[in-house]
Backbone:
């Protein structure tokens, strides 16, 4: 099965929170409201700075994707 790179998720136990699930390496769950990341994979690499830079980049990409998705929902509501 092919999965999208990012998924939106919510949970009734955390009604104020919105989550983005990143399904590719490095997999993680981002709590958008709290701006917290739970890594599901160990981040590997010889160069710690490069690993940190790549992790930051993919988390920023998740935030941008989430903003774009939420904007689509807003556009649908206005139509």
Residues:
């Amino acid at each position: 099965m092919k999965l999208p790179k990012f998924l939106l998720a919510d949970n009734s136990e955390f009604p104020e929170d919105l989550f983005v699930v990143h399904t590719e390496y490095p997999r993680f769950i981002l709590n958008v409201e709290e701006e917290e990341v739970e890594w599901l994979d160990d981040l590997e690499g010889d160069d710690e700075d490069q690993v940190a830079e790549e992790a930051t980049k993919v988390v920023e990409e998740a935030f941008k994707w989430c903003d774009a998705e939420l904007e689509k929902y807003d556009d649908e509501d206005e139509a």
